[in-house]
Amino acid sequence: MTGTAQWQQQAREHLFQPFVDNAALQREGARVITRAEGACIWDSDGNRFLDAFAGLWCVNIGYGRPELAAVAARQMQELPYYNLFFKTVTPPVAELAAAIAELAPAHMNRVFFTNSGSEANDSVYRMVRLYWQLQEQPERQVIIARHNAYHGSTVAGASLGGMAPMHRQGGLPIPGIEHIQQPYWFDEGGDLSPEEFGLQAARALEERILAVGPEKVAAFIAEPIQGAGGVIIPPATYWPEIQRIVRKYNILLVVDEVICGFGRTGEWFGSDYYDLQPDLMPIAKGLSSGYAPIGGVIMADDFATVLAEKAGDFNHGFTYSGHPVSAAVALENLRILRAEGIVTRVREHAGPRFRQCLQQLADHPMVGEVRAVGLLGAVELVRNRETRERFPQVGQTGALCRDLALEEGLVLRATGDTLLFSPPLILNDQQMDEIIKTTKSALDRAW
Ligand code: PLP
Which CDD domains has this protein been placed in (predicted)? Predict the structure, then answer.
């Protein structure tokens, strides 16, 4: 046995895969992906797919950039590994921290490195609680998050996240985390206008702060646009009201930039898009465009100063916090994003064009809403466009459309009956048209 059959068999017998039904996968066999270029991936049988999901929201720069491979090889030969624990640092890590600080909002100039977004949010959980202990307000330990948010799969990450199916496995959330309403107008807005609903959803934060006791609340955490939850773009009234509330009660604002960071919205960060003043920004994914695992937490200067000056030893970190190879790759990724004006192109051209293109699907009898910011988009599937009534078997139509699109060579994702798009930022106009054409064909066939 060789090639596809061999890899499928090895996976069947020895692999346990994340976020899938492993018993079903055993029967079906996994598709083997062997190579990629630009916005496309190929399987081991030679089939080509346009990847409208950039891997897992991460390959911002596109696949197959030899510059990233070259810096990884060079760094592996020169210094494949050294740590940051022994009062030591390595050149790519120092340079990457400086490069991130230059891109981040002006008041945020320090970075703590992790390997992933989940580890970044686990770090956040400890950092904010430590911060208030150091500020001599040790009772401030509650973190408020949102239902249907995604902040990762580690224990604290999944607890901060508001995914009920994740909480059900393993007895989450851990104590000290409260979840409030998400700003999902399409599903939860009822008869309210988006603007009214945005205010209502934001004021759920104030209500919860008052219910918990303002003196006990440490932080509020949210994604600028919820990604995995369904590319939920909050109404325009939402974020200004949230910003007002966290200021009023002196609560730390943690803006999870793992998806929105590094150009996805057409700005460097979702916080720039919504004009936010975060205290902490967890990052990952687009930082290295997925070429090497790396994440981190960008810290506001005031916050970092308290931890640095009052904590003594910071008793937290990972063997690979600031891995030099990942850091070199991330640095080169940021250089290319800047040098080629990729983020600007999303803001000025690709993002507005994508929104327009998605509008071509808005008249379809099964589509209740289309929405997009930058190269992040969603299509809501419904049984009744007027009432926004969903299909009775939630998720079936979404999965069907996703599978039909895949048959026609397009990778997109469905969460429930929402189709999600997050293509590489280097997507060209022709590929964008292909996404729309194939999605339309899938919708027609599913209808
Ligand atoms: N935060 C957000 C907003 C995410 O979308 C994700 C992953 O999708 C994470 C955190 C977790 O990142 P990772 O999968 O790198 O641990």
Answer: OAT_like
